[in-house]
Write a structure and sequence with these properties.
This protein has seven helices and twelve strands. It has 301 residues and is an alpha+beta fold. Strands 1, 2, 3, 4, 6, 7, 11 and 12 form an eight-stranded mixed sheet that branches. Strands 5-10 form a two-stranded antiparallel sheet. A two-stranded antiparallel sheet has the order 8-9. A hairpin with a 2-residue loop joins strand 8 and strand 9. The longest helix has 38 residues. The protein is globular. The protein starts with a helix and ends with a strand.
Length: 301
């Protein structure tokens, strides 16, 4: 009888511990559900998410993704920047930029990416040829091909090397847009981060990428006028939320820092450097990739 009396309190104690644990798990589940509900998109938006939006969300980079910037057997290309790069004023106006005639650039085809609204069809990408040296050409997409923030969420201080967008370009975009033989023709891009002459914001560590964005200095060197810096988005980029002005042109990101670490440098839709505040998580700003490719692999349009 004594043994049974000793056993009974033990059973009661274990049962209470079990119920407490279950209650705690239920509370955690409830809290998670509330958080998900609060972060869900508002139903007051004008349109439902398109398939293009769903594709972009599916293609978010993961830390486990192997980036092509780990490839050590490729040529590394750099951009030679002159010392006399002009500094834009507080309104983003670059001195004397309107006095320089627009350059007629070659347009080439290389790779394929989504350009339709639903993101179902891979279509040849048109590129502007910005530079040629040592058998390679520096290309910039003619149109804005996507609309993404520097980061997927949050507004922490960040530099280009740490961004989700740099990972997306070097992984999801790289592997979707280019076949194996095309990937082999793309040189590594020495993305050394020069200081933005407009601000003292930290530029971050240099990286070796396959796909990147232009820096402030590269933009001014290759595209000195407002007119040639204007760009329209593809239907796919529009479906992702890319803002357009009345002429159909859009703003697009640079890889250079802006006035503070949470506001990157960007091109306004009118072709001048952006004077408005667009934070790192702003997904209405367009993306124009830049790559170095073997000239012999390109097809003239």
């Amino acid at each position: 009888m004594k043994n049974k009396m000793h056993i009974l309190p033990g059973i009661i104690c274990v049962s209470m511990m079990f119920l407490s644990a279950c209650g705690s798990d239920s509370q955690r589940t409830l809290q998670t559900s509330v958080q998900v509900t609060e972060s869900a998109p508002s139903k007051t938006t004008e349109s439902e998410p398109t398939q293009a939006t769903e594709i972009a969300q599916t293609n978010e980079p993961t830390k486990e993704t192997v980036s092509p910037n780990n490839m050590d057997d490729t040529v590394v290309m750099t951009v030679d920047i002159p010392d006399n790069i002009p500094v834009a004023d507080e309104n983003g106006k670059i001195p004397s930029s309107d006095d320089i005639s627009t350059v007629n650039r070659d347009v080439v085809l290389f790779g394929n990416f989504y350009q339709d609204t639903a993101g179902n069809e891979l279509t040849p990408i048109e590129w502007l040829v910005l530079d040629e040296k040592d058998g390679y050409s520096l290309l910039l997409s003619k149109q804005i091909i996507a609309s993404l923030g520097w980061v997927n969420e949050g507004r922490n201080d960040i530099t280009w090397a740490e961004t989700d967008l740099s990972q997306w370009l070097d992984n999801e975009f790289f592997n979707t847009a280019f076949k194996e033989d095309e990937q082999g023709a793309i040189a590594s891009y020495d993305v050394t981060q020069p200081q933005n002459p407009r601000y003292d914001t930290p530029a971050g560590e240099p990286t070796i990428d396959k796909v990147s964005l232009l820096s402030y200095q590269e933009l001014i060197k290759y595209m000195p006028t407002d007119l040639e810096r204007k760009a329209a988005p593809t239907a796919y980029a529009q479906a992702l939320g890319c803002y357009q002005n009345v002429d159909g042109d859009s703003a697009w990101w640079l890889r250079s820092p802006g006035p503070i670490p949470t506001v990157p440098e960007h091109l306004a839709s009118w072709g001048n450097l952006g004077a408005r505040t667009h934070y790192t998580d702003d997904s209405t700003i367009g993306v124009r990739p830049a790559i170095w490719v073997e000239t012999s692999a390109l097809t003239a349009k």
